[in-house]
Amino acid sequence: MNKLIIDSQHLTVKDVLKVSKNKAKVEIGENAYQKIDKARKIIEDIVEKGYPIYGINTGFGKFCNVQISKKELKMLQENLIMSHSCGVGDALPEDIVRGIMILRMNNLSKGYSGISRETFEQIQNLLNHEITPFIPEQGSLGASGDLAPLAHMSLALMGLGEVFYKGQKISAKKALEEEGLKPIHLKEKEGLALINGTQVMTSIGVHAIADAIKLAKFSDLSAAMTTEALNGITDAFYEEIHEIRNQTGQIKTAENMRNILKDSKNTTKQAEIRVQDAYTIRCIPQIHGASKDAINYVSDILNKEINAVTDNPLIFPENGKVISGGNFHGQPVALAMDFLGIAVSEIANVSERRIERLVNPQLSGMPAFLSNNGGLNSGYMIPQYVAASLVSENKVLAHPASVDSIPSSANQEDHVSMGTIAARKAKQIVENVKKVIAIEFLAAAQAIDIKDQKDNLSSTNRFIYDKIREKVTFMEKDRIIHNDIIEMEKLLNDDKFFEEIENKIDLKI
Questions:
Q1: Which of 168, 197, 226 is the last residue of a domain?
Q2: Which of 72, 123, 435, 443 has the most CB atoms lying inside 10 A of its own CB?
Q3: 3-class SS at 453?
Q4: Where is the signal peptide (predicted)?
């Protein structure tokens, strides 16, 4: 059934993607309602008694010591959303924004934020009616959470700002009217409950890690196809070599390579053609494996953050306490996203070097740039340039964002994470790596045809080779290779293709 129930339970990356990408309907469970109601009652009691509590009846940031009169408390929350809606840049993609919304719902469902049922349900309404708030991608420091982008999300709940609806960018008010929905009016503490959190960096991270996990597996497959094209030596994947190194990702990658190549007639043993392969073939388990270990670490951090409570102040219904803390600080995600960017960059680095080995006649023993009529035709000369360009761009993007901090709010918020910048960079690196892997697959398939090796391919590689050739034919003479790369990238994005591979072979990560 294509739905997700939010009931204060543990969500996974797959759950988030079910809503963000596949547009599953969202339902709210009774357990979530009970927790929300308990926390809301505490907020209402505080308002009635007038105790000064941050964000409920005080100003924000440096204004935390300014107490707000009871009659102005609702205006305080609406002012917060409007004043903080100052993001800039292009719109975040629809799937990222839907991910933000379901993550925020999960956060609020835990019952530590003091949101009302009506406001909570309005996020559900937007998701189920496919009204996607316009959120500019730039402007978050990653502490106190993702304030500016989450404020733009919150505008739409109030019928303010702009949204994407039925393929158009229109006013939120008009979209709500079209679906028979009414704007909400924020109550005490609700504005802060909506924007204090790490859901923007986490949503970007969730989408990046899902692609990174797939790419880690595809990188083993593209490397295996290149290994066949270059008659690579399989002794380097011998199980005991990797067992005595004791690195998990390395052990799993070597196992993947053995399984992919087990029935290949193109690979060789040491000293049959050469004694050793270059590192980009021989050290595939060591290089890919290290990236996989990093990817698994990042995945663990994100799975924790998906289910984290990141609001401030936090309400503890069991004892009635309302305590200011710092769960909104994005440092755990910031460091993880920087690590992901570095780790995935390395997958492209080694892939590009394998592409070079395929197109360089001094290294491959094949016609230069995999063209049978070189000179008149340039063949795969420039795709290698493109891969090199992407790899170089990744090196710039992989510079850590989390090592930077700029004090804000008159030095009240004097250390920030830059986690959303780190997440955005990691996502771009992942997209770049996907293109490099696509080029390696194309070059490897071209090399296999030049050497007439397709009938000697392993069963796994033959399946992938045939799928490639359904989309991209052998390049007899020069053509617009951009189109080939686009087709190969579409194949890598095809969930059905990935599932078919997974059904054929159990690739470890």
A1: 197
A2: 443
A3: coil
A4: none
